[in-house]
Amino acid sequence: MQWGGHGLDQFDGIRRHANGYTYAWTGGATGQNPGNLSAGTYTVTVTDANGCTATTSATVTEPPGLSLSASANPTDCNGAATGSINLTVSGGTPGYTYAWTGGATGQNPGNLSAGTYTVTVTDANGCTATTSATVTEPPGLSLSASANPTDCNGAATGSINLTVSGGTPGYTYAWTGGATGQNPGNLSAGTYTVTVTDANGCTATTSATVTEPPGLSLSASANPTDCNGAATGSINLTVSGGTPTYSYAWTGGATGQNPGNLSAVRTRLR
């Protein structure tokens, strides 16, 4: 440090005119060795007992401000603890410690459930900064299935309509009973269970039952003609099962469910 003045030599290891110095600082500093100073340049004028003066300056520096930036990665599945946070720290004085809310730990915590996490970072000098990040989650994977019955008893004409929502699209479908695709068809009567897997491996399961109508059942009884050669015979036909309404196709010209005015002949439904 260089000093200038009237008859005042260097302050260290030199003779002085007197022993009583006074110190006049800029910026509010006081005393020979001021403390508790903010960053900046401070100038001091030292005056000795004889009024001789010398002036010098010193600059107090400071580390860069402690800066935080946090970005969150969502969970893979609704309700899963697979989220994470990437925290970038700069400035301050390295040798950082991290105090998170919600049980997160370390600079870049993982295995997190959906929620907002706040971190206070403390540097080696005890300086602190705080920031937050929110881990999100996809909506829950939801399934709704409705079945359409077969046309006939024993037929493989049933189908299932499956509606999928939530999760992360890019769905795959694993059915029991040989059904395939989102909306399988050509199904026999029975219960079919599907497990849907989304693009992140999240799964949901539901079932649907394809029904079938009862088997179509016929019972016919014939009434004879009144006279030989007369057309006064009739047939009583009982129909059950299947799916009403019915239509009738007879041989021999008979019509309707219970045809009459029939001659003697073997008559049957085609």
Could you characterize what this model shows?
With 270 residues, this protein is an all-beta fold. It has 4 domains: 1-62, no CATH class; 67-135, Immunoglobulin-like (Sandwich); 142-210, Immunoglobulin-like; 214-270, no CATH class. Helix content is 0%, strand content 38%. It has no helices and 15 strands. It has a 3-stranded antiparallel sheet, with no helix packed on it. Strands 6-7-8 form a 3-stranded antiparallel sheet, with no helix packed on it. It has a 3-stranded antiparallel sheet with strand order 11-12-13, with no helix packed on it. A hairpin with a 5-residue loop joins strand 2 (40-47) and strand 3 (53-60). The relative contact order is 0.10. The model is unreliable at 1-18 (pLDDT under 50).
Offer a quick outline of the entry:
By secondary structure, the protein is mainly beta. It has no helices and 15 strands.
As a whole number of angstroms, the C-alpha radius of gyration is 48 Å
The CATH C-level name of the largest domain is Mainly Beta
Order of helices and strands: EEEEEEEEEEEEEEE
Number of helices: 0
The CATH architecture of the largest domain would be: Sandwich
Q: Report on the biggest sheet.
A: 3 strands, antiparallel
How do the strands and helices of this protein lay out in sequence?
Layout: E1 22-25, E2 40-47, E3 53-60, E4 67-73, E5 84-90, E6 97-100, E7 115-122, E8 128-135, E9 142-148, E10 159-165, E11 172-175, E12 190-197, E13 203-210, E14 217-223, E15 234-240
Features:
270 residues; mainly beta; Immunoglobulin-like; 4 domains; 3-stranded antiparallel β-sheet; 15 strands; rod-shaped; disordered N terminus
